[in-house]
């Protein structure tokens, strides 16, 4: 009994250290850090780890949010390609199909590569032709070079801690809810229940019931909350008009978007922008 309690305490401390270190990288080092695992690894993680790492499981700059809303399948394929490149076991720089430059460092569990840490959100002038929205590409992304020297120092320790966390948790399971949650967290703008059912090879009723049972809210309500956070990000970091923000965040009805925004944040979108400029 005491052995299990000690193991839980060790895991709790490790998770807290990882989250604290990610926050340090973001807030103190100015790096846009995200953590990604392959499908099998994420499938087997306990809820505590999933909930702790989920906020750092996707790129959150305005341009990437816009891109994912246009074609999430290309983003999914891009992540699969990065995982393949990570099999070499070395860090590298890459440019995605939409013209975003990023630094990638593999996360390994023993001899197996199970994920990667990305430092993203950079742009190079040579990649402008890849941009889906040139104005947003230029406004939301950092035009400086990727700080390779800094990344090579501060990112490997995070990958080591993540590998230690994965090794400490040896339980083998299949938690389909983890995968649905991860998918929605990153690709929620224009996703439908039919899309989810097709992607996971399940019926719509199975997906809907599983998510409501595990999460306590419907898929639509969960996605709306995420889309409102995306809209807030657009308001703070772009000059896009409210109508365009509503559509790019995944709302087809501007009035409905404004109503939900006021209900969640207690203020209209335009007023929110003015008060936070």
Range of helix content = 55-70%
Number of DSSP E strands: 4
Could you give the order of strands across the largest sheet?
1-4-3-2
Number of helices: 14
CATH class of the largest domain equals Alpha Beta
Alpha-carbon distance between the termini? 54 Å
Describe the secondary-structure layout:
Layout: H1 2-27, E1 33-37, H2 39-43, H3 47-53, H4 62-70, H5 72-86, E2 92-95, E3 101-109, E4 112-122, H6 134-140, H7 148-168, H8 176-186, H9 193-200, H10 204-215, H11 219-237, H12 242-249, H13 254-265, H14 269-275
Antiparallel strand pairs: 1-4, 2-3, 3-4
Helix pairs in contact: 1-7, 4-5, 9-10, 11-12
Q: Care to describe what's here?
A:
This protein folds into two domains: 2-172, Beta-Lactamase; 179-275, Homeodomain-like (Arc Repressor Mutant, subunit A), CATH 1.10.10. Strands 1-4-3-2 form a four-stranded antiparallel beta sheet, with helices on both faces. It has helices spanning 2-27, 39-43, 47-53, 62-70, 72-86, 134-140, 148-168, 176-186, 193-200, 204-215, 219-237, 242-249, 254-265, 269-275, and strands at residues 33-37, 92-95, 101-109, 112-122. 60% of the residues lie in helices and 10% in strands. It has 277 residues and is an alpha+beta fold. Helix 4 (62-70) crosses helix 5, helix 9 (193-200) crosses helix 10 (204-215) and helix 11 crosses helix 12. A hairpin with a 2-residue loop joins strand 3 and strand 4 (112-122).
């Amino acid at each position: 009994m005491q052995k299990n309690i000690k193991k839980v305490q060790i895991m709790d401390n490790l998770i807290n250290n990882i989250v604290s270190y990610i926050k340090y990288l973001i807030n103190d080092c100015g790096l846009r850090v995200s953590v990604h695992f392959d499908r099998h690894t994420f499938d087997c993680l306990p809820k505590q780890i999933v909930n702790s790492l989920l906020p750092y499981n996707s790129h959150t700059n305005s341009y990437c949010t816009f891109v994912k809303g246009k074609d999430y399948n290309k983003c999914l394929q891009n992540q699969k390609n990065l995982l393949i490149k990570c099999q070499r076991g070395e860090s590298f720089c890459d440019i995605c199909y939409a013209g975003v430059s990023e630094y990638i460092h593999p996360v390994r569990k023993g001899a197996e590569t199970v994920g990667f840490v990305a430092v993203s959100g950079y742009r190079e002038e040579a990649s402008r032709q890849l941009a889906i929205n040139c104005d947003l590409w230029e406004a939301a992304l950092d035009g400086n070079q990727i700080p390779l020297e800094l990344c090579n120092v501060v990112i490997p320790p995070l990958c080591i801690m993540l590998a230690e966390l994965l090794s400490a948790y040896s339980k083998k399971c299949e938690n389909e809810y983890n995968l649905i949650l991860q998918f929605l967290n990153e690709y929620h703008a224009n996703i439908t229940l039919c899309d989810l059912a097709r992607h996971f090879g399940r019926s719509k009723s199975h997906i809907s019931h599983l998510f409501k049972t595990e999460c306590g809210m419907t898929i639509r309500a969960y996605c709306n909350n995420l889309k409102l956070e995306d809209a807030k990000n657009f308001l703070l970091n772009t000059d896009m008009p409210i109508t365009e923000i509503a559509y790019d965040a995944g709302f087809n009805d501007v009035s409905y978007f404004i109503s939900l925004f006021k209900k969640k944040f207690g203020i209209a979108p335009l007023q929110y922008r003015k008060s936070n400029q």
